[in-house]
Amino acid sequence: MNKCKLSKAISSLNIKEIKLLLESGQCSLNGDGYERFSPLIECITSEVSRRRYGFDGKAARGFTHDEVDARKCEILEVLLRNGAKINAPFVSDHSNFVLRGETAVMLAARRGYLRCLRLLVESGADLTVVSRFKNTALIFSVEAEQVECVKYLAEHTPASMLNHRGQHGMTALMCATFFSGENRLLCMQHLIKSGVDVNATDADGKTALAIAVANGNTEAMTLLLQEKALVNSVSNDGLTVLSLALENATFSFATYKSVVGVVNKLFQYGADPTLSRRHRDFLHVAVMYVDNAMVKTLVKNAFPHWIVSGIET
């Protein structure tokens, strides 16, 4: 089988050569590519030299991401018409461990090839399939901050998989809250609009709100509070959202003032400072994890007066 020629034609996005090779009957479409990639996966993962070479081997200017997406989509159509298995996972005995178990639709979602993604889904790609690390195409798109792919997948992923726990027990929404940034916030908005459970918990019993607060993601925190996220959730090890704000103050927030702002916001949405963390209430956690200046600032600006009655400030 002339797999080397087919692989080369796919990696250079040479549609004419691909068609000729397939018509010759010399090439297999399912698992005979480099490292046993299926040609669909090889098409998605191939890297085109956009500076030196154009499509079909012609010298050309640089190609945009959208142009590459469009050409890859054309090739996928050809491969699918010729019987390529749409849900075939990447398999390798010895290399590229990270990609094991990922399907073409997962890779398209992660790389932001929206045209390819749509074609694969419309052609029957299974969005309930998970990778070796239990991630879905939706989770991959969120992790890569591919906003348009997230929007599309949030609308097309079966409802039963919107809250699927992937690697580390995190849902797509939790992955979106882990880091701050405009793209992450847009991903969150698309997920929430699709009906994800904002109060789902990870393997440690933490909600998306708890994760956002723990990582100093105040924009995500505000959005989740507006979407009725539970402000008084308690993790498996007894951590409240308020406690997480203080325990992570030293590395998640730039200043004491920002921590006070977070605590004030949580109080505005009904956070209960009397919930204990291993028999220690919020004030005791504050004393344990921050210095006196922080405690005084919190007492003066955040704590309800009745909580700190009798404490010298």
TrEMBL record:
Keywords: ANK repeat, Repeat. SMART domains: ANK. Coiled coil: none annotated. Pfam families: Ank, Ank_2. InterPro entries: Ankyrin_rpt (IPR002110), Ankyrin_rpt-contain_sf (IPR036770). ANK repeats lie at residues 100-132, 168-203, 204-236. Gene3D superfamilies: Ankyrin repeat-containing domain. The keyword Lyase does not apply. This is Ankyrin repeat-containing protein. It comes from Elysia marginata.
